[in-house]
């Protein structure tokens, strides 16, 4: 087996081992995937890490165990992340579960994952949805965030974490997952056109100006 050929889904780590990531839309994992995951971990003796992006990472793989893990996981219905794309948004539980929630978040998470997750992007473009201004899913600290209010969701752009964290800028309001999807689609296209590797949405805002960006997404 040629170990130099990249295997989609396996990402080389600092110590030379490989990792893979399982997507869990809305932070939810099905019983079937739990069963499969348990079998894979027992068979291959690997480490399971819950990421801050509500995904599951398998650590300590080599190419052989990595291939086997992907095969078993996909047979068991798990979505293994294989490309740089929008992927799943980070989503808090929202209504009716959280006592403070002003809005439901799962319909947004579901729609975004179903319709937009596979849009390719050059650098990171993080999306998050929160059911109230508390922003437990960090909707105020990502490239595109939707934060629930009594009526609808505030749209926040250009936030990020890192060593120089920045809060997103409020640019307008929406009320449906379809509107959120349209905004993400338009921004992803602009982002891919204007932005190079290792940049973020706030750079795009600086480059073309916030008013131009708002116009482009329909505000
Ligand atoms: S952001 Fe608001 S609705 Fe979501 S979990 Fe936090 S407090 Fe609850």
Write up this protein.
The chain is an alpha+beta fold and 219 residues long. It has two domains: 11-80, Sulfite Reductase Hemoprotein,Domain 2 (Sulfite Reductase Hemoprotein, domain 2, Alpha-Beta Complex), CATH 3.90.480; 90-216, Sulfite Reductase Hemoprotein, domain 1, CATH 3.30.413.10. Helix content is 32%, strand content 19%. The chain is built from six helices and ten strands. It has helices spanning 31-44, 63-75, 106-116, 177-194, 201-208, 210-216; strands at residues 11-12, 18-23, 47-50, 56-61, 79-80, 90-91, 127-130, 144-148, 153-157, 169-174. The strands form two sheets. Strands 1, 2, 3, 4 and 5 form a five-stranded antiparallel beta sheet that branches. Helix 1 (31-44) packs antiparallel against helix 2 and helix 3 packs across helix 4 (177-194). The model has no long low-confidence stretch (mean pLDDT 94). Bound molecules: iron/sulfur cluster. The site of iron/sulfur cluster has 12 residues, from loops.
Strand proportion: 15-25%
User: How much helix is in the residues?
Assistant: 25-40%
Mean pLDDT reading: 94
> In whole angstroms, how far apart are the ends?
53 Å
Name the CATH superfamily classification of the largest domain: Sulfite Reductase Hemoprotein, domain 1
Helix and strand run: EEHEEHEEHEEEEHHH
What fold name goes in the CATH topology slot of the largest domain? Answer: Sulfite Reductase Hemoprotein, domain 1
Got a strand count?
10
Rg calc: 18 Å
Count of alpha/pi helices? 6
**Which architecture of the largest domain would the CATH scheme give at its second level?**
2-Layer Sandwich
Structural class: alpha+beta
Principal-axis shape: globular
* Structure ligands: iron/sulfur cluster
Compute the number of structural domains: 2
CATH class of the largest domain: Alpha Beta
List unreliable stretches of 5+ residues.
none
Major sheet details: 5 strands, antiparallel
């Amino acid at each position: 087996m040629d170990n130099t050929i990249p295997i989609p889904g396996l990402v080389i780590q600092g110590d030379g081992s490989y990792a893979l990531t399982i997507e869990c839309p809305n932070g939810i994992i099905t019983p079937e995937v739990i069963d499969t995951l348990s079998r894979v971990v027992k068979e291959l003796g690997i480490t399971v890490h819950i990421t801050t992006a509500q995904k599951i990472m398998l650590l300590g793989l080599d190419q052989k165990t990595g291939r086997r893990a992907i095969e078993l996981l996909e047979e068991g219905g798990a979505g293994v992340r294989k490309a740089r794309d929008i992927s799943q948004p980070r989503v808090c539980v929202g209504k009716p579960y959280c006592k403070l929630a002003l809005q439901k978040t799962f319909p947004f998470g579901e729609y975004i994952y179903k319709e937009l997750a596979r849009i390719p992007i050059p650098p990171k473009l993080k999306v998050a949805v929160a059911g109230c201004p508390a922003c437990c899913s960090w909707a105020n600290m990502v490239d595109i965030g939707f934060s629930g209010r009594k009526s609808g969701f505030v749209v926040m752009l250009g936030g990020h974490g890192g060593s120089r964290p920045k809060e997103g800028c409020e640019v307008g309001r929406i009320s449906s997952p379809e509107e959120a999807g349209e905004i993400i689609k338009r921004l992803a296209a602009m982002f891919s056109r204007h932005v190079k590797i290792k940049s973020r949405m706030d750079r795009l805002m600086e480059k073309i100006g916030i008013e131009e960006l708002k116009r482009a997404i329909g505000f």
